Amino acid sequence: MERRHIHANGAIIIGKEVNTIEEEQLGLDPTQVFLDKKVIFEKILALEPRDAEKLGVGRRTLNYLKERIQRNGDINMRTGAVRKLLGFQ
Question: What is the rounded end-to-end Cα distance, in angstroms, of the chain?
């Protein structure tokens, strides 16, 4: 039996530091994004279900987000549905 050499096409990095590896190599600070929640909430409240579905968010999810905004005045901005509605994903 003979040993064979492995030729890798790429590497997948897994872990907490994955998101910052590229910035660390270049010596850059990670950029910060500050969002105006009031404008975002107005945008979500004005959305029609058919427009949200075009962005990949279902009717029930949109209704849930609208209820949370009206009831609590706040939502989790890091959810996939909110990111899709804002165009970050």
Answer: 49
Closest Cα to residue 44, out of 13, 74, 14? 74
pLDDT tens-digit readout, 35-74: 788 889 999 999 999 999 999 999 999 999 999 999 999 9
Among candidate residues 74, 66, 73, the one with its CA nearest the CA of residue 85: 66
pTM for the model stands at 0.61
How many of the other CB atoms lie within 10 Å of CB of 40?
16
> At CA 31, angle to CA 27 and CA 35, rounded to 5?
175
* Burial annotation 3-36 (CB, 10 A radius, 16+ → b, else e): eeeeeeeeeeeeeeeeeeeeeeeeeeeeeeeeee
Q: Please give the angle made by the CA atoms of 70, 76 and 78, to the nearest 5 degrees.
A: 145
